[in-house]
Amino acid sequence: MRFDTPATTNPIDQLKIIGRATDRIDGPMKTTGAARYAYERNTEMPGAAYGYVVGAGIAKGRIASMDLAAARAAPGVLAIVTARNAGKLAKGDFNTAKLLGGPEIDHYHQAVALVVADTFEQARAAAQLVRVEYERTPGRFDLSAEKDAAKLPAPNPFAGEPQTKTGDFAGAYAAAPVQLDATYTTPDESHAMMEPHASIAQWQGDKLTIWTSNQMIAWGAGDVAKTLGIPKANVRLVSPFVGGGFGGKLFVRADALLAALGARAARRPVKVALPRPLMANNTTHRPATIQRIRLGAGRDGRLTAIAHEGWSGDLPGGQPETAVNQTRLLYAGANRLTTTRLAVLDLPEGNAMRAPGEAPGMMALEIAMDEMAEKLGIDPIEFRVLNDTQVDPEKPQRPYSQRKLIECLRTGAERFGWNRRNPAPGQQRDGRWLVGMGVAAAFRNNLVMKSGARVRLDNRGMVTVETDMTDIGTGTYTIIAQTAAETMGVPLDKVQVRLGDSAHPVSAGSGGQWGANSSTSGVFAACMKLREAVASKLGIPVAEAEFSEGMVRAGSRAVPLAEAAGAQELVVEDSIEFGDLDKKYQQSTFGAHFVEVGVDAATGEIRVRRMLAVCAAGRILNPKSARSQVIGAMTMGVGGALMEELALDKRHGFFVNHDLAGYEVPVHADIPHQDVVFLDETDPISSPMKAKGVGELGMCGVAAAVANAVYNATGVRVRDYPITLDKLLDRLPPVA
């Protein structure tokens, strides 16, 4: 099915099942332990051995020597894999550095060996006996020190152009009667998902199966095949359950490759899970940014000049953090400049983490908007409303498909009680607590991807959907089942969903907030094709066929859906292919975040007291799971604002706090009451589902809303995240 004209009325609009708050159909499996994750696939691969990864002890240099004798002689050891005996390995399309290092070392904790043994304990003990001598060379580890050497990166489909210019920014900024010029920094951050990177690999002749934890199955299978130099058809990746990814599992990592190499060397299935201390340095992370924002406005509060420049770093051949991209689209202003620069750093790979680009970019932009509003003496919400736009500011001929930012701000202000906020900072107290409110806009682009599915109808009337789409804890099983049930006119318990297998049709995968909208559109396309097949087999004109309550009706005729399958299954396959509507219309999601904080007047301790998110993201397919997505994103936003930071050793080039004991993330005690409101919206230009993504929108802007609330509470403006008490203590108002 090709989607190149706006959606009209279709079976999804019945809203009998779609749009209803529905319990996750995979919930009982996960709460009872019946849902088995990658490392738990013992039934499919009995007798698996265990692999333990040895990570490089330096960040830059080469291996001078590696002594494996003691490790090989250790009890239970079956094989040891290194770059010397692994055979020729290529580098996958989605990996910046090689997944198995040696002799050259690209970053700290790059995998240099895998020890395979009968038990996990034996493999771990033997791995400690591997003796590696290194020749260390100087590395580049400090973004601020490398900032001036940063260059414009090459454009790519996700990041776009590295620089955009509209009008005359320099002239307009110089002439603006009110100006802001501020620099903000965001730190390196870790995905810190619960399930580690884990895989089990098995060879059957020249065919390889890997049970793994991965968000993008087709990408992963392709990269494994390319790395090993084997046909993609010989690689099967299976990932039906993922215990959190947040972008860290978009691409295959060392666990999957080394499990495959270990299984080949040991001639039996091998399980590999990255220990928690290896995950921060061996896998990807959100890279730190330096962001300079300049705003110029007239006395009336209208922006006349907007510039946002961003710097981030990555390994050679890597990609930048596109923190400036939302500034190209969010607010009106005739004269504009955005620039993204990339420095070469010898740190572990920087890559996508939940809402890449917009999440760190909004952390800076939405503080800058508050700072400018204060300079102008305008309420922060009114300042944002005043500078709203219904077209792409860089391409005014391109309107937004839907844009309800003002409605989000107005709805949130009324619901949150914004009128009770004292605009003078440091004036509101509750006992020992200084109390403040903050607001920030939320923005995330709406991306769509080609996505396919296979649908089966059997003689019991069961509809089975097969697609390589993944469920990373987001409720994908449920919304796909809802889509099939709605389209085929059957109850939810008549739908079975099979996900996360490269043997199934290629889907959009889970990433970039495109997963739900794209994958359900692919399922809708396949189901519409199945409707045609059913109508044809029953001799009913498809235009007249009504599918409901497990029946197919046309005029006075009513036939059970199951009858169409006959003795054999009816099987169809289709995909959704998106045309150029995204070029004719700017498609984005919008929201508003409201936060109230208390700051201890004596200690600077920050406590979030309440939070509200108002979201406009097209049709909400399942309000229950969508709300869970947003409150989870809000929680991550609090982490980004107040505690999350990979502490970088700038001498030796590694992240010191590389476990969940040292890397702070929010816990229950940190998170207060959270409220979520979804505006009633459909976007027929987005997809046949008229939906958009929402899981990353719920994070974008949260950290800035917290920062703005802290300023309102204390009068202390912090521009360097995270906002820890040491950045407040010497600037707090006097204790009354």
Summarize the structure.
With 736 residues, this protein is of the alpha+beta class. 24% of the residues lie in helices and 26% in strands.
Walkthrough of the structure:
This protein starts with a strand and ends in a 22-residue tail after the last helix. The protein contains 17 helices and 32 strands. Helix 9 (358-376) runs parallel beside helix 17, helix 12 runs parallel beside helix 13 and helix 16 (623-642) crosses helix 17. It is globular. The longest helix is centred in the C-terminal third of the chain and has 24 residues, at 515-538. The strands form eight sheets. Strands 4-6-2-13-10-11-12 form a seven-stranded mixed beta sheet, sandwiched between helices. A five-stranded mixed beta sheet has the order 1-27-21-22-23. The protein has a five-stranded mixed beta sheet with strand order 8-16-15-14-9, with helices on both faces. With 736 residues, the protein is of the alpha+beta class. Helix content is 24%, strand content 26%. The relative contact order is 0.14.
What's the structural blueprint in terms of helices and strands?
Elements: E1 2-3, H1 27-32, E2 49-55, E3 61-67, H2 69-72, E4 77-82, E5 104-105, E6 111-117, H3 120-127, E7 131-136, H4 143-146, E8 163-166, H5 169-175, E9 178-186, E10 198-204, E11 207-212, H6 217-228, E12 235-238, H7 254-266, E13 270-273, H8 276-282, E14 289-297, E15 303-314, E16 335-344, H9 358-376, H10 380-386, E17 391-392, E18 395-399, H11 405-416, E19 429-430, E20 433-445, E21 451-457, E22 463-466, H12 476-488, E23 495-498, H13 515-538, E24 546-548, E25 551-554, E26 557-560, H14 561-565, E27 570-578, H15 581-584, E28 588-600, E29 606-616, H16 623-642, E30 648-649, E31 654-655, E32 673-678, H17 702-714
Parallel strand pairs: 1-27, 2-13, 11-12, 15-16, 22-23, 29-32
Antiparallel strand pairs: 2-6, 3-5, 3-7, 4-6, 8-16, 9-14, 10-11, 10-13, 14-15, 17-18, 19-20, 20-28, 21-22, 21-27, 24-25, 25-26, 28-29, 30-31
Helix pairs in contact: 9-17, 12-13, 16-17
